[in-house]
């Protein structure tokens, strides 16, 4: 990994850790696989920290620009998957 996670210096340490967990979950979906519930849990917490769509887009776009991983596509696939399946972007 040769990139940094986007973050806001106004967030608490706990919030920074939780946002990073969401981006790590997206990485898992691309690099291997992740259980849908684990991904959705990290996303729900991410949305508690970043509730606005514009801010969410800002941070996920920054992440995609630096990593090449699309949070949007991972979440779209997860939302379209009905069962408690694994999510993989491979």
UniProtKB/TrEMBL annotation:
Question: Which superkingdom?
Answer: Bacteria
Q: Which Gene3D superfamilies match?
A: BH2638-like
Q: Which family does it belong to?
A: Belongs to the UPF0223 family.
Q: Which organism is it from?
A: Peribacillus cavernae
Q: Which InterPro entries match?
A: BH2638-like_sf, UPF0223
Which HAMAP family has this protein been placed in?
A: UPF0223
- Put simply, this protein is called UPF0223 protein ELQ35_08135
């Amino acid at each position: 990994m040769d990139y940094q996670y986007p973050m806001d210096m106004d967030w608490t340490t706990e919030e920074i850790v939780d946002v990073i967990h969401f981006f790590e979950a997206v990485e898992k979906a691309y690099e291997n696989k992740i259980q849908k519930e684990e991904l959705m849990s990290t996303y729900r917490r991410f949305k508690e920290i970043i509730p606005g769509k514009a801010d969410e887009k800002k941070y996920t776009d920054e992440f995609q620009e630096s990593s090449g991983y699309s949070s949007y596509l991972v979440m779209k696939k997860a939302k379209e998957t009905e069962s408690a399946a694994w999510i993989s972007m491979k």
